[in-house]
Write a structure and sequence with these properties.
heterodimer, A: 295 residues, alpha+beta, B: 228 residues, alpha/beta, Rossmann fold, 2 domains, six-stranded mixed sheet, four-stranded antiparallel sheet, 7 helices, 32% helix, binds adenosine-5'-triphosphate, binds magnesium ion
């Protein structure tokens, strides 16, 4: 097609919004609402996953060393622990540090510990964090084999419950995300389809005058893309504002909840919303126009 | 220029809209297509502008077998003919000027060409002062003039009109007929389906009468009904 034809197509496609003002406004609003719902849900899902991940990262194994453990062998021991599959981090705790911690835990009642101060009954120990809590039994077993480790402690049952919980969160989160994405796509394409339906008579007139499919289709395509874009911009505005507000409120009220920071997440989410708004709007009108072109 | 060879059109496997139609129309002719409602007039013209395909037989335009026309060639074929309807079929969101220009835009005409042709054709149909009016701001007669201007702007060889005066009062109908006659005198073949007895009787043109999908009369300088 000639340049002048493309000019016409752009003028028609982008100017069509004003000419079909109410219809376009309704469509843009629908796109915005659908994407706001999707966006807010995605942010919640991201945060819930984040909390699950955080909880899992808290899973910890304590390994107490032999009474007569030679501290010169400390780094060799740590490397052999690191070598075990699934170990994320290791921290060496001397028995003096261990006592300090106990005192902190006992708080005001720490006098009872003064009695044992000189004859510290503790041994040096290791704190081990795991990368995958489902491996905790295997890791603990391997730790038991390491030379120098006398005893291994961990809360196996609690960890299993936790893993069950986080798995469930992931699973249902995934299903909900898929359902919501499909719902959003359906809603947007259907709305765009209505705008094309309302103008099917125009399509048939254009065909009678001798317009090719492309000349009819491209303006609708651009118009659908533009409506999707405008709707998604509104959605991005609402979603970003809402997250910043919720982030502030939750970090004040529930400071221990690990929230996903706004910065990379909101930028990515905005890109995703704008992209899906445009793509779905454009494809929705493309598909609907095709139906009336063939009618 | 137009030839129908044993043409039948069946809708939904049982509605016989046309049956065994044989006829030919020469370049420059003015032909009325008459007949009672449901006789098959609209179906006849739809075959010509390739809205429908013949179920049996062949329709030729300028030697082209319209039944063999590929889908993607239909727009290019339609640019060679002009079509006018009872309900005008103007694009509601375009002005009179833009409606006419659209027929040129689809041919990828240059801006210069458009600016030259549209005003002169609007002047020819007597609408030089209504360029910027939208269809809903125009009377029925004025809308039909825009539609005729649009049909003519590509200087088609054939003008097809399906009851072009069907929605107009008698005086306005005659104005439109004067316009269409003028187009015919300038060399364009005209095929017009109509129920307007007065017009057919007064103009004394060739009349093809359909009944139940069959040609029952084909008469040079004919009238509308049997009284002619
Ligand atoms: N798309 C269609 N599907 C099914 N039947 C149709 C279709 N179009 C027309 N018909 C039938 O074909 C026959 C001829 O219809 P057509 O519209 O050609 O008549 P007409 O002569 O133009 O009538 P009118 O004077 O009322 O406009 C009628 O019986 C009509 O019901
Ligand atoms: Mg008819």
């Amino acid at each position: 097609m000639r340049l002048s034809t493309w000019k016409y197509i752009f003028k028609e496609g982008l100017g069509g919004l004003g000419k079909n003002f109410w219809m376009s406004l309704a469509t843009i609003t629908t796109v915005a609402i659908a994407l706001v719902v999707l966006g807010i849900f995605l942010m919640m899902a991201t945060n819930i996953q984040n909390i699950a991940l955080y909880l899992e990262s808290q899973v910890e194994i304590a390994a107490y060393l032999d009474d007569d453990f030679d501290r010169n062998r400390k780094s060799a021991l740590i490397s052999s622990v690191y070598a075990i599959d699934g170990v994320a981090d290791v921290q060496y705790v001397t028995k003096e540090e261990g006592l300090e911690r106990l005192k902190e835990q006992f708080g005001e009642n720490s006098e009872i510990l003064e009695a044992v101060e000189d004859v510290n009954p503790l041994t040096d120990s290791l704190e081990i964090w795991v990368s995958d809590p489902t491996l905790i039994h295997e890791i603990a077993a391997s730790l038991g084999e390491v030379k120098g480790i006398r005893k291994v402690y961990y809360h196996g049952e609690v960890v299993e419950k936790l893993v069950q919980l986080t798995d469930m969160i992931r699973y249902f989160g995934m299903i909900l995300v898929i359902m919501l994405v499909l719902g959003t796509l359906f809603l947007i394409t259907n709305t765009v389809r209505l705008t094309v339906f309302a103008r099917r008579r125009e399509i048939s007139i254009m065909q009678l005058v001798g317009a090719t499919d492309g000349m009819i289709r491209w303006p609708f395509f651009l118009e659908g893309m533009l409506m999707g874009f405008l709707g998604s911009l509104i959605a991005v505005g609402v979603v970003v504002q809402a997250y910043l507000w919720a982030f502030e409120m939750i970090s004040n009220l529930l400071p221990f909840v690990p929230l996903v920071p706004a910065d990379p997440m909101l930028v990515n989410l905005s890109k995703l919303l704008v992209l899906s708004g445009m793509v779905v709007g454009a494809i929705g009108s493309w598909v609907s126009v095709r139906k009336y072109l063939r009618a | 220029m137009i030839e129908f060879f044993n043409v039948s059109k069946v809708y939904n496997d049982h509605v016989y809209a046309l049956q065994g139609v044989n006829l030919s129309i020469e370049k420059g002719e003015f032909v009325f297509l008459v007949g009672p409602s449901g006789a098959g007039k609209t179906t006849f013209v739809k075959l010509l502008y390739r809205q429908e395909k013949a179920s049996k037989g062949q329709v030729f335009f300028d030697g082209y077998n319209l039944g063999k026309l590929r889908r993607k060639d239909i727009p290019f074929y339609r640019r060679r003919i002009g079509v006018v309807f009872q309900d005008f079929k103007l694009l509601p969101q375009k002005t009179a000027y833009e409606n006419v220009a659209f027929a040129l835009v689809v041919t990828e005409a240059t801006q210069k060409e458009i600016e030259k042709k549209v005003p002169s054709i609007l002047e020819m149909v007597g609408l030089e002062d209504k360029w910027n009016s939208y269809p809903h701001e125009l009377s029925g007669g004025e809308q039909q003039r825009v539609a005729i201007a649009r049909a003519l702007v590509n200087t088609p060889q054939l003008l097809i009109a399906d009851e072009p005066t069907g929605n107009l009062d008698p005086d306005t109908s005659w104005e439109i007929m004067d316009l269409i006659s003028r187009v015919n005198r300038m060399g364009t073949t005209v095929l017009m389906a109509t129920h307007a007895r007065d017009i057919v009787n007064t103009m004394k043109k060739r009349v093809i009468a359909l009944e139940n999908g069959q040609v029952v009369r084909d008469q040079a300088k004919g009238g509308y009904g049997d009284e002619a």
